[in-house]
Every structure is written in C-alpha cells, then in structure tokens.
Amino acid sequence: MPQNEHIELHRKRHGYRFDYFERKRKKESRLVHQRAFKAKKLRGIKAKLFNKQRYNEKVQMKKTIKAHEEKQTKQKSTENVQEGAVPAYLLDREKQNRAKVLSNMIKQKRKEKAGKWEVPLPKVKAVSDSEVFKVVKTGKSKKKAWKRMVPKPCFVGENFTRKPPKFERFIRPMGLRYSKAHVTHPELKATFCLPIIGVKKNPSSALFTSLGVLTKGTIIEINISELGLVTQGGKVVWGKYAQITNNPENDGCINAVLLV
C-alpha cells in the first residue's frame, strides 16, 4: 500500500466521523468568502495567476451548464393535410412543432447510465470471504494468522510484481491466474478468445474487485481490438466490458458475454 493512502484505508475500515459531512458542508460554504477575500488581497503576478485560474473554472462551469440546457427545436408535424382550398401564402408553409431537446452529450450519458446494469446475469449468489480467503499460518510456532491464500481464479496485470513472500498478505497462486477469456458476442453469435485488461466489478465485494478475483457475474474489461469494431467517428474500439457467465474454478476457463 502506498504511504499516502492511510486515510483512505482508515475510512474503509472504520467509516467517517459522525460530523464529517456537516463539517465538510460548512467548510465548502466558507470557501466562497475566503476566495473573495483572497482575490481582494492579491497583487502582481499572484493576482494574474489567480484570476486566470478562476476564469478557466468559470469557462468550464458555463460549458457544463450549456451541455445540460434544453434547447428549443422545430419539427415537421405529420398531421394529415386539410381538405379544401389553401391560401397562396400558406402553400409553401409546413406545420411545425416546437419541442425541447436535451443535448446529445447528456443523452449519451443517460443511455450509458441506463445500460450499465443491463447484464446477462442481473443476480448472482454472493461469495463469502471464508470461501475466497484461506488462512495461512506463519511464524516459527505457526501462531500468526494474518496471511490469506486466494484459492479462486484471479486476474493480475502484466506488469504485476509480487511483494517479498514474507510481507505478502494476499497470496494468489500462479496456477489460478487467468489472462484470457472466451467472449461471446451476442449480436454476431460468435465466440472469441480475447485478452483480459482488468476486473471492473466483482458483485460480491470491493476487495475481490481490487484483488482481481474472477467469480460468476464479475464484470471484466476485454481487449476487443482484434475484432475490428469501429465507432461512429471511425476510431477502433479498444476495450469493452463483459460479464462472466460460468464458474471458472469448476470449468478451468472463463466464459463471458460481451455487454453491447
């Protein structure tokens, strides 16, 4: 663990202080006054840098607001044309409807959010810690029990380096490490053996996700550059998510379905 993550680790184990969020809210509300006071006091090059930073922040804020705005658009109405004579000045005029439309960026984000949980296996049986972690006794008299063996299939990155065995808390055996998965494309109805990039989410636990434990229902990221799929802009799609549909510890391989 890096030296600077001790606060995050403490929060994971023990949670936040009871008044943390209230104090945070008050601090944020005071920040506006502090910033105004600072802007009045600064002189010279420091004032220039400060104003430049504030300008950039405001530009970014305005862009975000503009992206969220609803725009008025005109659309042709599909109503049937009325029978009878129409005045000459109305002949070339089409009926139009006004509608509010969200910007494309927000639509896309909403689609992604909605489609996030549309997975082949929405519910899977949770895997307990006792099933995933086997206690390894260490020390001269085998009284220390802080080490854990992971007897489940795992994924570790290519540039992963083990800690010295004496200090390694979670031991992931080499024989249970997987780097490829058999991924089925639901639309093409074809299966490909593709390399795994990483583990996005293990539904059982956040710790299993960080350790790269591969169980049924886990969302993994797959390198699909070999398939040659292209975006609307013409760029090659490099990584996509897939969900594991089998029990890798029973089958000795990983079968997954691509989330299209």
Question: How are the elements arranged and paired?
Answer:
Blueprint: H1 6-14, H2 20-41, H3 44-68, E1 70-76, E2 96-102, H4 104-115, H5 129-132, E3 134-138, E4 144-149, E5 170-171, E6 180-185, E7 190-201, H6 206-211, E8 219-223, E9 239-244, H7 248-251, E10 255-258
Parallel strand pairs: 4-5, 6-10
Antiparallel strand pairs: 1-2, 3-4, 6-7, 7-8, 8-9, 9-10
Supply the number of helical segments. Answer: 7
Largest sheet: 5 strands, mixed, barrel
Helix content: 25-40%
- The value of Rg in angstroms is 28 Å
Number of DSSP strand runs = 10
Mean pLDDT: 85
The low-confidence parts are none
Shape: flat
Strand content: 15-25%
How far the N terminus sits from the C terminus, by CA atoms, comes to: 35 Å
Order of helices and strands: HHHEEHHEEEEEHEEHE
Structural class, please? alpha+beta
* Strand neighbour order, sheet with most strands: 6-7-8-9-10
Q: What report would you give on this structure?
A:
- The protein is of the alpha+beta class and 260 residues long.
- Helix content is 32%, strand content 23%.
- It contains seven helices and ten strands.
- A five-stranded mixed beta barrel has the order 6-7-8-9-10. Strands 3-4-5 form a three-stranded mixed β-sheet.
- β3 and β4 form a beta hairpin.
- The protein is flat, with a radius of gyration of 28 Å.
- The protein starts with 5 loop residues before the first helix and ends with a strand.
Keywords:
32% helix; alpha+beta; five-stranded mixed beta barrel; 260 residues; three-stranded mixed β-sheet
